[in-house]
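Re: [ENG-882] Designed sequences occasionally contain unexpected residues at chain ends

Forwarding the minimal case from QA. Structure tokens:
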């Protein structure tokens, strides 16, 4: 019975850490984009930079999620 309790407690702790890490990661991405936005002038450069950032996020987020699961 105690083993089951500790396994559930460990799973809950892992879930809380995963949520906190993902929240911090999301906040960092939003701050980076908010910092980068005024530095890019013109519509096409913004589209290109946004596309590159989106492509990077498409590949990096699953890798980061896999590390914490």
């Amino acid at each position: 019975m105690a083993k089951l309790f500790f396994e559930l407690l460990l799973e809950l702790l892992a879930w809380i850490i995963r949520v906190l890490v993902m929240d911090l990661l999301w906040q960092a991405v939003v701050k980076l984009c908010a910092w980068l936005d005024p530095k890019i002038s013109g519509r096409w450069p913004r589209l290109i930079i946004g596309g590159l950032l989106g492509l990077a996020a498409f590949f990096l987020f699953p890798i980061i999620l896999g590390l914490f699961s």
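QA comment: On inspection the terminal residues look reasonable. The chain has one domain: 16-67. Proposing we downgrade this to a documentation issue.
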